[in-house]
Amino acid sequence: MSHSEIKKPEDITVPPSSFLAKLPMLGGILAVAGLGATLGSAFGENKGRAMFAYLFAFESVLAIALGGLGWLLLDHTTRAGWGVVVRRFVETTAATLPVFALLWLPIGFLGFHELYPWSHEHDAILAKKAWFLAPGLWYARSFIYLAVWSALGWFLYSTSVKQDSLGDNHAERDRLVHLVRKVCAGGIFLYGVTLSFGAVDWLMSLQPHWYSTIFGVYYFAAGILAFFAFVTLMTMVAQSSGVMKTAITTEHFHDLGKFVFGYTIFWAYIAFSQFVLIWYANIPEETEFFMVRMEGGWQYISYGLPVLHFFVPFLYLLSRKVKRNRTLLGVGAVWTLVMHCVDLYWLVMPNYGAHGEGHHEPHLSPSFLDFTALIGVFGVFLAVYGVLLKRNKTVAINDPRLDESLVHENY
Amino acid sequence: MITGTADTLPDDPKIRGDVVLPDPTHGREALVRGTHDFHSITEMVCRVNEAPLKATPKPFLFGLALAASLLAMFGGYIGYLLWEGPGIWGNNNPVGWAWDIVNFVFWVGIGHAGTLISAILYLFRQKWRTSINRYAEAMTIFAVIAASSCVALHTGRVWMDYYLFPLPNQMGLWPNFRSPLEWDVFAVNTYFLVSLLFWFTGLVPDFATLRDRATVRWRQVFYGALSLGWRGSMRHWVTYEKAYQILAAFSAPLVLSVHTIVSFDFAVSQLPGWHTTIFPPYFVAGAVFSGFAMVQTLMIPARHWLGLKDLVTAKHIENINKIILVTGSLVGYAYAMEFFVAAYSGNDYEGFTFLNRMGGPYWWAYWTMISCNVLTPQLFWFRKIRTSATWSFVLAFFVNIGMWFERFVITVTSLHRDALVSSWDYFVPVTEIFYLLGTFGLFFTLFLLFIRFFPVIAISEVKSVMPQANPHWEGYEHGEHHAAATASAGGH
Amino acid sequence: MSTKSNLWGVLAQYENPHAIYKACEQVRDAGYEQWDACVPFPVHGLDKAMGLKASKLPWIVLTMGIFGSAFMVLFESWAMGSAYPIIVGGKPLFSLPAFVPVWYEATVLFSCVTAFFSNWILNGLPRPHHPAFGSKAFERVTDDKFFIMVEATDPKFDLEKTKALLQGAGATLVEELEP
Predict the structure, then answer these.
(1) ipTM confidence score
(2) Contact A67, A227 (CB under 8 A)
């Protein structure tokens, strides 16, 4: 490399009075207020509605953390160098995964009956699915998913943190680098399987007659897209709090913007593939999914998603200037995150009230519970994120590829 | 596996490229091995093209003769097909359609690696692609030609093929744009044309190199015409690079769309085993998988015989194998997902189709597919195997076989037990085997001619990723003006 | 000004990317307009050293891409919905989801064909002859040598001064070119 003396960043701790340092408190307030309101209602007569709101919020935020884990696995496996300066923000995202195991508990133990009709209904089709959709197996699988994600997320975070304090111990550092690469290569496989089946178990089985082989990929696409939008925003927040002000340059934001752009296309590709095949073949077992989303107000979201979650951000992020301008890119990232929540809302909510006693046509009727659930779960996520970020340096300062990342330039 | 370090590479260019270097934790392994400057790169690549016609190696001529005779046979077979009609494939029964579709999808799939290497790896800044992109692109174009020959000839009245295009006509008739087969026409033709333009754009500067070095008249005229008067002007390079970048940016989603649309041919139907939503990404992964396997199959002998091991090193082989491992596993994921959802759906017909694939009359095809596509590529988890040229060649060859069988399994097993019992049949190819062989003749004839006359390595691109291509390279600052790259200098 | 009537310009040869990079900066700073650098591969940052502007190509491609895209979706809707209305497979006459694949391919086709041809047209290629091709040394421009040429029509051009500038910037060879 031509640049022999590269200055390592020095602003790598969270300043005590900055916004970033207040994240745990802010997140905590949101969490208490939001979760209090939502789960409080779950003990009243609105239990079903509250639990659906909670599931929507849980899946929306979990997707971000899982997206972060996915990026880390790919990043280490491909020996990517450009992103080392932002990697700690990603590792912190993935390190929140153990908390999602706790956040999952209300779904498993409070609202299981309300959420999943197959847990108590019986019909000819469900009888054929009983080998898979059985409560015992479902709990066992859920524990496996949560354990795998928590272990991978925490391992990647703690190993990277361990590297920070190694100083000049290059042998140990290199050993850890190689170890992480091996774990990540295998981790991709575990990740792919658990994420897909997680999506089947927790989301697809909300509508237990329906099936789609691409569904796991759909959830992955939604998650990694939301994650890139989130990490772009988090990096901006960190910089405005006085962290890594010069180390993270326009070049890195440009790359993050390219990923938001690229995964926007990927999400649209997967969504379109699922839709067009079901629409074209027109088989009743499958069209059920889109039929319920074509009435009762849901059709506006169904028509809106391709436009607002694809065409608008696609055209907006197409320009190099937008990706290289922090304010404009930030707007795009916020937009993407909002649309991600709409997408998940559209996946989860039409199932509310579609089954069981009091059966009615699902209609779009937003409730304040949806909002409180979202800020509640997101608050927990932010609080944990803030705590973990504050505990350590905000960059993997000892990473051997840090120099490469610092001088990174797009061509 | 010979292991070593960058500082202790042997001097012999015949073995230098095979040495496996440790996986670095910082910096990057040099992409070009040995002490090369720009001129020696030019020499190494152009040597292949510049040998006088009379001095063409005998084994090469033998290979060309073999391929050309297969091609001639293909010509005869096409004549027979046109004279008799597609009835010679037993097309009075749905399962009789299978063979030409299998071949079409097989060849189109192979055609995906070239554009993937040129476009997607380019967008991901994978500089190692520069020493393999040229012949991968060539392979793409020839594979798409072979694929097109399968679809263009299976229409029955081939002389009416122009009806596939939306040409104005006095009957006011337009093709049905809602039909996946019409989507195919657009996808494959667009893909072919864009790949060709992309390939040619990349070739122009290298044609100029051959033109400037040409000593005989016909070479001067031939390469002079192809190089369009390229003179390396930096003003041209600026526009050229932008055009190349744009072509790459469009080709990347294009390559995905082509196999997606091929998968739609199957998946929009209602046939169990064809209609499943994972098909688009699954077909794309499979196409990339088979394409990279074909790159590996062609490249390993080529780097050996053409003496290009300094440019196509053990690192390149390893990287390609990693992509084969990933895409092979993605294909395995899709097989598993299809199987799982067939069981999960509770749909009896789906369930039957998948059990019938495993244990029905075509069990041998299914298990060939699983072994070659999912099981054997897992050996690439071992570094010793994925850095070995011999192992890679063998396993990549298996993938080629497995991916042909994948298309066979999808098309044939679903068709031989469809909704009408009267359509049930056991498909036995008769003359179709000549058809498959013929497409190989077409492919290899074109490929061998390409190797002989066109630069097989993107010369100017390889130069641009060498460390001394950077005007701020350390060597210049230390005044080593004619310094050659050393392997430790890094390829970043 | 130039003294010879049949002088096209001056050609100078440099040995490596570093040398031509420094030389281009000097020629640029001397205020020349009609000059060029010829190199075997795009040298990173040389466009900035020469003071070149970004290419117009993306805008042309964008325009044609949007045109192709709009044309095809309208054409499909017209052909299927109005010119030759026939129901196939139970799909409505205007069935947008089924139009997407061809719509998409047409967008790519228009954009890529435009990018390809604009590249050559903007660059004034094919151009079979160029004065520099008269130089024997220039044959290595596509191999390993780096050249700067300054045209005699440049307002700043002065045979001796220009030669001295190029020589002073580290040229290993300076030649005069005839048209």
Answers:
(1) 0.90
(2) yes
